[in-house]
Amino acid sequence: MAAIATPHVRPTHATSIAIMGLLFFIIGFFTWVNGPLIAFVQLAFELDEVNAFLVLMVFYLSYFFLALPAAWVLRRTGMKKGLALSLFVMAGGAMLFGEFSTQRWYAGALSGLFVMGSGLALLQTAVNPYVSILGPIESAARRIALMGICNKVAGILAPVVLGTVVLHGMGDLSAQAAAADAAGRAQLLGEFAAKIHTPYLVMAGVLMLVALGVLFSPLPELRPAEANAAAEPGEGARVRGLFQLPHLWLGVLCLFLYVGVEVLAGDAIGTYGNGFYLPLDRTKFFTSFTLGAMLLGYVVGLVAIPRFVSQERYLGISAVLGIVFSAGAFLSHGYVAVGFVAALGFANAMMWPAIFPLAIKGLGRLTETGSALLIMGIAGGAIVPQLFAVLKQHVDFQLVFLALTLPCYLYILYYGLRGHRAGRAPR
């Protein structure tokens, strides 16, 4: 019987991995397009840096507010319907953002980003635990690393696509707008803002097509309560609530800090380069450098875990690299300093793949809720970069960057060494 069943299991598993890879590609594209969007809104809406960084604040805060409702929705819709719903919500947000950006109404454009983030909160709440429990939890980091490659390939492409299609010649346009009178400036910036409309309509159409494809796909349902049962004998019976799981709560904080430094290194790298007065037409592509480093980090992690090193030990190594690269960015200048910021992508790459499975390990029936709490931690991407944007108005930007990243990496190091074992039975 086993010999007959095996051919049916493998294609289903491979198909599930392929669908998850496509969804992680979508997550990566819509997440990492935010870096160049900061430059877009700053020029199109005539904003200062603090207000331009509201792009990240609004986008990532949607995770905080929508993650727990997303878990409730998924329990009622099931996997495929929930995934399709998330993509339709994202499509609606993309249309809103494109329309309100064309009208140069910033509050409306931010509402579109919030809707997109809400769809992503639902999508992330589903796909991360799904990939984690699709096989043994001990090797989950390898599967998430594979998903991360799909995510970061999209992240590399997103700034290039937006930079080429929408932001081309932005440096010259900025100079022209500054020299024009009020009417001429309004016309120039109106034409520039309108360039975002068609790309976001195309994105919305693609999202709706993928949603329909997922809905009619052979994607199987998984039961987290069974697939992610506690590993230690008797532990599942002892755990009655989330507050008896300190390794989860420490993991939520760890994910919050990790996403904060990840977004800071990826989306604020252009602003970091601007601090050295590097050309705007070059800094708009800097996010791709960070994402390229992350892609390399995922490839290394995919090879190394768990064959040569455990996912928790690799998390500690990654945190140490984060400390070293942050110090290098502080102690250097110009393109070298920007290179150290981009290198943080390599250090950050395997943090999510390690933190997420370590934090949900053994949650059983609480897996969906625990995963939603971790997704809420993505709000770190709203807080840490906004702190950078505000504090750099008063203190040297390199010092602010170091002061924000160093404590985050120190805590991540703690979680990799000890925090993930808190409250768990000793082996």
Descriptive account of the structure:
This protein has 427 residues and is an all-alpha fold. Helices cover 79% and strands 0% of the residues. It has 22 helices and no strands. The chain has helices at 2-32, 34-44, 49-52, 54-77, 79-102, 106-132, 140-165, 170-179, 182-194, 197-215, 224-227, 235-238, 246-267, 269-274, 280-283, 286-304, 311-331, 334-348, 351-360, 367-376, 380-391, 397-417. Helix 5 (79-102) packs antiparallel against helix 9 (182-194). The longest helix has 31 residues, at 2-32. The chain is globular and about 65 Å long.
Please give the structural blueprint.
Layout: H1 2-32, H2 34-44, H3 49-52, H4 54-77, H5 79-102, H6 106-132, H7 140-165, H8 170-179, H9 182-194, H10 197-215, H11 224-227, H12 235-238, H13 246-267, H14 269-274, H15 280-283, H16 286-304, H17 311-331, H18 334-348, H19 351-360, H20 367-376, H21 380-391, H22 397-417
